[in-house]
Amino acid sequence: MIIAGGYGTGRELVEFFLKYGPVGGLLGMLLPAMLLMSIFCAIAFELARLTKSYDYRTFLKQLLGRFWFLYEIAYLTAIILILAVVGAAAGALLAETFGLSGNIGTIGLLAVIAFLVFKGTGVIEGFLSIWSFVLYAVYIAVFVLSLVHFGPVIRESLSSAPAVEGWFSSGFRYGALQLSLVPAMLFATTHIKERREALIAGVLAGPIAILPGILFFLAMLGQYPAVLDQAVPANYVLGLLGSPALQVTFQVVLIGTFVETGTGIIHALNERLATTFNSLNKSMPDFVRPMIATALLIVALILSRFGIVDLIATGYNALSLVFIVVLVVPLLTIGLWKITRK
């Protein structure tokens, strides 16, 4: 769920890491971002298990009490922003790679997301799991090919460019932004039955989540600093590797990952609404799921016109600060206290 909005296009890595230099960016990914993800997920998974909080509304009530709605406001904003980024990126990728209209790419992507949301949890879990293995394989291939073609340039970038001040705070903000989706992922943690399972899954979540980003970050160093000015660095790097087959494969896999992210975040909202209906001893009507998905996707389609660079630079940075206040700090204090008390 986090990969497409987190570093699928490469623009996110430029904004939060690479502009602080190759070394500063790598340190930001390995220290504040990855460590924060592991610690946060371990606590979140265990708190969800203890309290049976598998939708974000129930989970946030455990942390914020009557103020749980603050997270929902931020989450709805994040949904629309992430969908806008994903839609803009899909349009740009298809236009650059296949010469298709950007509108066709954006609308086609959003239609697939709406279809999967309608199919429900089982199909979504299966799609997210299977596609993730494909994604990691392609990221490894891109990294290896970049190392073969631009290995000396990558080593030179890491050894000569100093870390720019601000890498730690930027890495922390990035980690907080990615963790904003963790309460929305809890529908997939119902399989966790013991504390040991929750803690192991949480600790592993950090390295697993950040690994493709690190691989692609290193691949981008072969084109540093020119890559800083690219709207979609992924396409720029792939074009210079001289492998049309890999470029097309990467685009297909990446668009599938965009589908993963969009499907997951909308499905989480639907699960939260289903919980509300259940609390009223009612079943959520079937038409509500596609209706919610369609409404969100239309708004995202309109916002995608602003372009991926502005959406990430302005929107992502602002939202990261909001989620530090309404999610990260409460979980690391109130959440940890509730776990240790039990």
Describe this structure in words.
The chain has 342 residues and is mostly helical. The protein has a single domain, classed as Orthogonal Bundle (Hydantoin permease), CATH 1.10.4160.10. It is 81% helix and 0% strand. It has 14 helices and no strands. It has helices at 3-7, 11-16, 22-51, 56-64, 69-98, 102-119, 121-160, 167-179, 182-185, 195-220, 233-241, 244-279, 288-303, 308-341. It is globular, with a radius of gyration of 20 Å.
Mean pLDDT across every amino acid position: 86
Number of domains: 1
Order of helices and strands: HHHHHHHHHHHHHH
Rg from alpha-carbon coordinates? 20 Å
Gist of the model:
The protein starts with a helix and ends with a helix. Helix 4 crosses helix 14 and helix 5 crosses helix 6. 81% of the residues lie in helices and 0% in strands.
Question: What's the arrangement of secondary structure elements?
Answer:
Blueprint lengths: L2 H5 L3 H6 L5 H30 L4 H9 L4 H30 L3 H18 L1 H40 L6 H13 L2 H4 L9 H26 L12 H9 L2 H36 L8 H16 L4 H34 L1
Helix pairs in contact: 3-8, 3-10, 3-14, 4-14, 5-6, 5-12, 5-13, 5-14, 6-12, 6-13, 7-10, 7-12, 8-14
